[in-house]
Amino acid sequence: MPGNKPDFSTFLLSLASSVMVHLGRVPDPGGEPTETNLDLARHSIDLLAMLEEKTRGNLSPEEGQLMSRVLHDTRIAWLEEKKLRTS
Fold first, then answer.
1. 19 and which of 47, 64, 72, 74 could share a cystine (Cβ 3.0–4.6 Å)?
2. How many angstroms separate the CA atoms of 36 and 47, rounded?
3. What is the pLDDT of residues 49-71, one digit of tens each?
4. Nearest to residue 48, comparing CAs of 31, 68, 65?
5. At what angle do helices 38-55 and 8-22 cross, to 10 degrees?
């Protein structure tokens, strides 16, 4: 979006959305059918975890809370989906 300055929260939510697309929990933004891909979802979660580590101490309280919530929610969603696939 021209003219809109990206911010950290939007970036985190973008990565979280990517996880949910790879888990088949939300439709692909392009309208393509979604296939569950646990490996790609895990990769995005690992990116979020790396960001948490690298930004520790440099986030506003709101950004830190969002980071924690996004990581928790995506990890739980991944575990639930993995359990469904291995049951």
1. 74
2. 18
3. 999 999 999 999 999 999 999 99
4. 68
5. 160
